[in-house]
Amino acid sequence: MRVLGVDPGLTRCGLGVVNGGVGRTISCVAVGVVRSPPEDELPDRLGQIADGVEQWLDEYRPDVVAIERVFSQHNVRSAMGTAQAGGVVALLAGRRGLPVRFHTPSEVKAAVTGSGRADKAQVTAMVTRLLRLDAPPKPADAADALALAICHLWRAPAADRLAGVKAESDRLAAAHRNRLSGARGKGSQSAPSSSERNGSSAPADHGVRATAPQAAPAAPQNGPTQGLPTGAPVSARRRPVPQTGRTLAARLRTATPGSTSQSSSPQQPTPSQPRSPQGGADRQVSATPRRSTTRDETTTKEVSG
Fold first, then answer.
1. Distance CA 129, CA 150 (A)
2. Whole-number Cα distances in Å, 26 to 4, 17, 45, 63, 66
3. Which residues are annotated as a binding site?
4. Predicted local distance difference test score (pLDDT) of residue 45
5. Is-above-0.85 flag for pTM?
6. Catalytic residues
């Protein structure tokens, strides 16, 4: 790749042509400056710079033109002249169809010396060493033009790759958006409604809304109705459970072996004390007529035993 580096200026416009690439040896093809007298009018000075750059473009035929970007300067008049000269060079390159790239001074210094704060002497020394020149290029504008060409040779491949990646990502994103919009439009046109899938049209809504049937209350989990089916009659679900009276409980404890604890057994009724029925079983025993005294005594003995 052949690069024409341009350090724009009205008084001196530095030009330098360098051949090379990433991983290849770089060499200096030509270096020089185009001058314009300060006493001339601005249009005449810009015309003289344009004529000099045209001769370099015709003679060396570069592949790309690298121009220093005007970043900031304390002298506003000098900054305006630099920008005007750079615009003339960019116009000439654009008319020839050559790509134009701009680099800031800090980028050039960092690419050549490794530090974005290097001075002109350090930049000139590194340019002389990199290009294996016999003597440092003079004036300093010529050395800056060669530094611009070297900077573009080393930075252009990465910048081009990044630009290519960005362009490819933009293309893929646009294609993806087009596919999504096409799929949404096709789906909205071909998707049938629920009534169409069922084969019938939806009934007209005349202000009446169907209400879902309410579930029956759950049956209580505790109490006398526990364990009964839900559909059982109310009388069956509310039937009281017969309770066990003291007499029957005493009989069961007496009949069970090992039940000899006196403290845990309930108080047993004596023959002289009247019985207080607690449940259905006691009421049945007390309601049965006593046929003989012998049976009553036998029952009393069994209870006391």
1. 12
2. 13, 11, 33, 15, 16
3. 7, 68, 141
4. 96
5. no
6. 7, 68, 141
> What residues contact 195, with CB distance under 8 A and at least 6 apart?
201, 202
Tell me the pLDDT band of 198, cut-offs 50, 70 and 90.
low
CB 104 within 8 A of CB 42: no
pLDDT at 163: 62
Annotated binding site for Mg(2+), which residues?
A: 7, 68, 141
pLDDT band at 258 (very low <50, low <70, confident <90, very high): low
Domains and CATH numbers, the chain: 2-172 (3.30.420.10)
Count how many residues are written for the chain.
Answer: 305
Which pairs with CB-CB distance under 8 Å and at least 24 residues apart come from 237-245?
Answer: 242/279, 242/280, 242/281, 243/278, 243/279, 243/280, 243/281, 244/279, 244/281, 245/277, 245/278, 245/279, 245/280, 245/281, 245/282, 245/283, 245/285
Q: Are 282 and 245 in contact (CB under 8 A)?
A: yes
